[in-house]
Amino acid sequence: MEAEEEEKVTEKITLRRGGNYTTQDLATALSRVQKGEQYAVVSLMTNIPFRTLFNKAKDQREGKSLACRTKPALHPELEADLVEWVAAMQRVGIPVGPSGILAKANEVYLAMQPMPTQHTAPPKPLTTGWYRRFIGRHPILTPRITLQIPHVRILVDAESARGQFYTMARLVIEHNFDKSRIFNMDGTSFKPNAFSRKMVALKGSSNVWTQ
Fold this sequence. Notes:
Layout: H1 2-15, H2 23-34, H3 39-46, H4 50-61, H5 76-91, H6 98-112, H7 128-137, E1 141-145, E2 147-148, H8 151-154, H9 158-175, E3 198-202, E4 209-210
Parallel strand pairs: 2-4
Antiparallel strand pairs: 1-3
Helix pairs in contact: 1-3, 2-3, 5-6
């Protein structure tokens, strides 16, 4: 009779999802198992999944750590590519911030997930919690404040305007352009942004400039 009851408890635990528990909860549960209590009973009373409790007891006997480690959402090679992308964007003068890194990571992560069906929920995107762990795994990346290129270096003066005009006139003549190649443009894109921004850059690199 006792064996049948334990089998029912085991089946119930196998079917249910595990709850939240701390490392201290796990250590206490393992201590109870070592003193002779049944795995199934301890699992049910502590909300620690039966299989987890069994595997952790095995790890404890082998001298392994009881700390719970979450597998990174992105493979280490993909994270390394993401670090290189951050460095490349910095080199070309378009540094990215935390939101940009998270957006790029989600672009890669969601592309790797299976297409949801009517019976499955769409995958959840990575969050700021993932970003903090990512930065912790890659100490080569550090928060920085971008420096605005001095106004004098991006100022359009009369000499520069004349040089551009004569260059364009020469190209129109050389390539025999007609009026169909003339486009109306405004100067919005050439207006400098005077505000500094929080970015992520390689640790030890020189000042991070943005246009």
